[in-house]
Design brief:
Blueprint lengths: L1 E2 L2 H5 L5 H8 L9 E9 L4 E4 L4 E6 L1 H9 L9 E6 L5 E6 L5 E5 L5 E6 L3 E7 L6 H12 L4 E7 L11 H11 L5 E4 L5 H7 L8 E5 L6 H9 L24 E4 L5 E4 L12 H7 L1 H7 L16 H5 L2 H17 L3 H26 L3
Parallel strand pairs: 1-2, 4-6, 9-10, 9-12, 10-11, 12-14
Antiparallel strand pairs: 2-3, 2-5, 3-4, 5-6, 7-8, 13-14
Helix pairs in contact: 8-9
């Protein structure tokens, strides 16, 4: 038997779609279970919320093995079925398969979950030295590959307040580089007006995640949405505008209006788990121009008559090529990666040998 109180859990982000999704899942083993939402992940324990209160829990080894076999793991935002043992300790017996799941990859290709079951990803980027469109493209690839709606939130708009001419060019640059359907907001994260600007994405039962680099203003914006100083915030460095990792773990919070927000630390390794089809959708302008290239198999690098190189900025095109290489590498087998590494090493040796001949050292 599963204890589900929809109205009580609605404030934790339970949607009709998730409730229906749960009803289609196989019944767990005999016993009484409570549907709860994962709000924090620690090394040995979790924090779960049942809509009334939060408590600590642990995960059954069987569940850990099953998720590992699926190349997955529990993440903040997951819905789980939990039950107490005879000693009163809470254990997770099953994860409800997430409707959305944002995953990043490490340099070795291994997957790491970021968050689960979010409706909107607020991609936070400061209007100070944090402003970086190549990094924003990576966040967009990370989010759009999971089916989550992205919204760009430009924070520290107060920096541009004395000189409004600084904001307009950046907004125009965003519109020219990205799809016109992408929502872009400029806010001062310390002011209540920021919460009003984000209200359309914070309806009852909705879950948003704040993502961005350290120092972008995610925790400040979280506190503004909560109406209380819950998350620690810190100053940014004066030389480059980057912040320390004040937020060290992901955490889910209930907002007064009935939505949920997940604050996240800045990702040290920002490698999206995407395929070529997702990149083609994100860089659709490149796909449209590619139809006008002289050669049908044009790689948009050195070929003559390349319409893409003529119509796309060099910075965006370089970022596209880099993301495409990463996506293709992630689909390779271990043997194929080893063969590719051997080719690169051989090219490196040949280049060094040629340089020695050129310098007269051979």
């Amino acid at each position: 038997m599963i204890d589900i109180d929809f109205e009580r859990l609605r404030c934790m982000g339970l949607t009709p779609a998730m409730a229906q999704h749960l009803a289609l899942q196989p019944e767990p083993e005999e016993g009484s279970f409570t549907l709860m939402r994962l709000t924090e992940v620690h090394r040995e324990t979790l924090r779960l919320h049942d809509g009334q209160g939060e408590r600590s829990a642990r995960v059954l080894p069987r569940v850990i093995r099953e998720l590992s076999d699926e190349d997955s793991a529990l993440a903040v935002g997951d819905w789980v079925l939990a039950a107490d043992d005879r000693h009163g300790e809470c254990w997770v017996h099953q994860r409800v398969p997430p409707l959305t799941h944002i995953v990043r990859r490490d340099a070795d290709g291994s997957r790491h979950p970021v968050v689960s079951n979010v409706d909107t990803a607020l991609l936070v980027m400061g209007l100070d030295e944090d402003y970086n469109l190549r990094r924003l493209e990576r966040y967009l690839a990370l989010v759009q590959g999971s089916g989550v709606q992205p919204v760009v939130v430009l924070t520290k708009a107060d920096i541009c307040a004395p000189t409004p001419q600084l904001l307009a060019p950046r907004l125009q640059e965003l519109r020219e580089r990205f799809s016109s359907s992408l929502d872009v907001l400029a806010v001062d994260g310390t002011q209540a007006a920021a919460a009003h600007a984000l209200a359309p994405y914070l309806n009852v039962g909705q879950t948003v995640v704040l993502m961005g680099s350290s120092g972008a203003g995610k925790s400040t914006l979280t506190n503004t949405l909560l109406g209380a100083q819950i998350q620690d915030t810190g100053a940014v460095r004066e030389d480059d505008g980057r912040g320390k990792h004040t937020t060290t773990s992901r955490s889910l919070h209930r907002l007064p209006g009935g939505a949920c927000v997940i604050d996240t630390p800045g990702l040290r390794a920002l490698r999206p788990d995407v395929d070529e089809a997702t990149l083609a959708w994100l860089f659709d302008d490149i796909g449209r121009l590619a139809l006008h290239c002289r050669f049908r198999d044009c790689r948009h690098q050195e070929e003559p008559g390349c319409a893409v190189r003529e119509g796309i900025g060099g910075d965006r095109l370089r970022n596209y090529h880099k993301l495409l290489r990463e996506a293709r590498r992630d689909t390779m087998t271990v043997l194929e990666r080893q063969q590719q590494a051997s080719v690169w090493k051989a090219r490196g040796r040949a280049t060094r040998a040629w340089m020695k001949v050129k310098r007269g050292e051979a």
